[in-house]
Amino acid sequence: MKILLLEDDHNLHESLKAYLEMEDFEISSAFSADEAYDLAYENNFDLYIFDVNLGDDENGFEVLTALRRANDKTPTIYASALTDISSMTQGFNAGADDYIKKPFDPEELVLRIKSRYMSQESLLSYKDVTYNIINREIKQAHKVVGLSNILANIFHELIIQKNKIVPTDRLLEALVSPNSNALRVNISKLKSKLNLDIKNIKGVGYMLEEL
């Protein structure tokens, strides 16, 4: 599970990052609003964990509000010392899915992540295709479908961001010898294999589209 951690307190950030990595989460670090925007644009995350008070021009509420306006629906947990009802209301209005009050036990955060996000989002669907993101099993019309590692990795990136653009650079990481032509060939194979509607957003990336 890929997590973007936005926390400007370096000591807390590093200790929380280390704890989450021990639980096998992949953590990307942001210490400011600008860093969070850059990472959110360049990567596809499964979860955001945002502090509120960042010490710069924007706070965590404003960061998430901007991301939601850009159609970023990534589940988000606020971790904040602001524990009043007004702040919590503002956080949920910004689009948060959960709010944990500082100070907190990192184990509590891990329990929330595993119980509320990993189990609920383990099975994704697209038309007659279902995908288990835990064991990466793909079924079409209830029958298991076998894909090469390259096609399986491309499919994974597209379906976890269904109806959102996946940057070309991200998809190129799935290839043994990354180049645009090879990516187009593999996208074509994937479309044919599973009857997928994959839209090419020229100069940006690809999107698995479901109307």
Question: Overview of this structure, please?
Answer:
- The chain has 211 residues and is of the alpha/beta class.
- The chain has two domains: 2-118, Response regulator (Rossmann fold); 123-208, Arc Repressor Mutant, subunit A.
- Helix content is 41%, strand content 23%.
- Strands 2-1-3-4-5 form a five-stranded parallel β-sheet, sandwiched between helices. Strands 6-7-8-9 form a four-stranded antiparallel β-sheet, with no helix packed on it. A three-stranded antiparallel β-sheet has the order 10-12-11.
- Strand 7 and strand 8 (137-140) form a beta hairpin.
- Helix 6 (149-159) crosses helix 8.
- The mean pLDDT is 89.
Number of domains as seen in the coordinates:
2
Q: What is the terminal-to-terminal distance? A: 27 Å
Helix content: 40-55%
User: What is the β-strand count?
Assistant: 12
List the helices and strands and how they pair.
Blueprint (H helix, E strand, L loop, with lengths): L1 E5 L3 H13 L3 E5 L2 H10 L4 E4 L9 H10 L6 E5 L4 H10 L3 E4 L4 H13 L4 E4 L2 E4 L4 E4 L2 E3 L3 H11 L6 E2 H5 L7 H15 L3 E4 L3 E4 L3
Features:
Rossmann fold; 23% strand; 2 domains; 211 residues; alpha/beta; Arc Repressor Mutant, subunit A
Structure summarized in a few sentences:
The chain has 211 residues and is of the alpha/beta class.
